[in-house]
Amino acid sequence: MAIAGAGQLNLHESPCWGSRSVDCFEKLEQISEGTYGQVYMAREIKTGEIVALKKIRMDNERGFPITAIREIKILKKLHHENVIKLKESVTSQGAKDEQGRPGKCCPIPINNLLLGATKYSPAVDMWSVGCIFAELLHGKLIFPGKDEPEQLNKIFELCGAPDEVNWPGVSKIPWYNNFKPTRPMKRRLREALGNQEKAPATATTRRKGQTTEITAFTASCRLPPIQSGQAHAQMRPGPNPPLHGSQPPVAAGPGHHHGKPRGPAGGPGRYPANGTNGGFNHQNHGGGYSSGPYPPQGRGAPYGSSGMPGAGPRGSGGSGYGVGAPNYSQDGPTEVLVLDVALT
Amino acid sequence: WNHRFYRNSNQNRVFDGVGLPSEECVALMVEKEHRHLPSADYLKRLQSGDLDPAARQEAIDFIRKVRAHFSFGPLCEYLSVNYLDRFLSAYELPKGKGWTMQLLAVACVSLAAKMEETEVPLLLDLQVRECKFVFEATAIQRMEVLVLSTLSWRMQAITPFSFIDYFLYKFHDDKIPPRSSVL
């Protein structure tokens, strides 16, 4: 895969980028929908070329979604037959809703914080990366749970149940007691995925040497140990110095300022202990991380803990501005990313 | 050795040799750099008063303030100004409406932060103290889109930051320089 180095984006783009309207395309049918917006199969009127048209949904408070910005940034860097190619961004005129990209890539909703852990950290990202590699290797979803309890169970079955040894501090995490497995479960990751080296070559394992690397990655795919990394917010001094160092690793219950985990906030009592689906917010496909305090990035990034001024401009002005702000379905801007992907 | 170091190095590409551009890439970057610059007559237009240099300076001051307030990295600031200049050179803002420049500055810094920063404040929060005008999120959002399309969605500008690693490497006889020398 050709990954462009720092700052070398846009090297191969066509000159017409961004200058056209979505009217150059005719929507044929909707392919998928997520929190990001919708994806349509569409035809470029002039050439007849079939493309995926992703309509990006605007965020009322954050403007053009950071997820879309990052997506464009990354897609422009990647040039590989197995990675969807970002063909063009177009805007719609007049009525505004926006457009995004195809549901071809990401059926992987793994990167959330588990069990009510509230610290987003590099370990969480590593977990996500591990899951993605494991799924590429495996050729299918590795934790295909219908809801969060089921998904957690799948994770425990494969990775072993979390305990104080493999995840120090886990027993103090808000929902640990609600979800800890009733029987011991051993880690069987290597058994399940480790022999993939002998498996028929897949797109990702085709190249020699890559296989072991991916397997190693897979093997390091474990529940994110909450202490091992620092929350992103701590990587730089915010306007107010962060106080995390003096805080316990796990903030529990109502009133804490860390990013909220997915699902209802407010503490263990509000999470159904019986494993029913009601209180969860599980989305299985395509960018469906919606319930954190930071929707565009999902995963409960600890925005609230970053030291950003909680009572600042927003505190003083938020309510006032909120009133009368048109919602995006009426008049949010419209971007269309058009991607050429074989929709067969 | 503070947190800042880590994030800065992250932005500027830490010297780990990973992502070091090849000669070919550098050549391409040089070739494409002009796509991420204001038009050739931009400076002249500023000097002649066709564009208002004081308004531009005010916008940049605002960007600096935002950057300092949120501890954004240097690349974020650089990109913000890059977007601002490119936009001004390509799009005629209505004359006599000072607020449009302010709106543009907010949109530019917001976009740059979304490109480069780990955490991006709400649009309302971006408008830190002493703003003459405070805009609703939807207004900023529309401006963001106007900037994006005016700049042809070329937001990952090739900047001096893009070349730093390469030159450091070259200065060190084609070796990865020790971290201490980069600091």
UniProtKB/TrEMBL annotation, chain A:
GO terms for molecular function: ATP binding; cyclin-dependent protein serine/threonine kinase activity; RNA polymerase II CTD heptapeptide repeat kinase activity. It catalyses: L-seryl-[protein] + ATP = O-phospho-L-seryl-[protein] + ADP + H(+); L-threonyl-[protein] + ATP = O-phospho-L-threonyl-[protein] + ADP + H(+). Residues 307-323 have a biased composition (Gly residues). PROSITE patterns: PROTEIN_KINASE_DOM. GO terms for biological process: positive regulation of transcription elongation by RNA polymerase II. Residues 229-333 are annotated as: Disordered. Pfam families: Pkinase (PF00069). The keyword rRNA processing does not apply. It is an enzyme of class 2 (transferase). Its EC number is 2.7.11.22. Keywords: ATP-binding, Kinase, Nucleotide-binding, Serine/threonine-protein kinase, Transferase. Residues 25-344 form the Protein kinase domain. One of its GO terms (cellular component) is nucleus. Residues 270-284, 297-306 have a biased composition (Low complexity). SUPFAM superfamilies: Protein kinase-like (PK-like) (SSF56112). Belongs to the protein kinase superfamily. CMGC Ser/Thr protein kinase family. CDC2/CDKX subfamily. This is cyclin-dependent kinase. The lineage of its organism: Eukaryota, Viridiplantae, Streptophyta, Embryophyta, Tracheophyta.
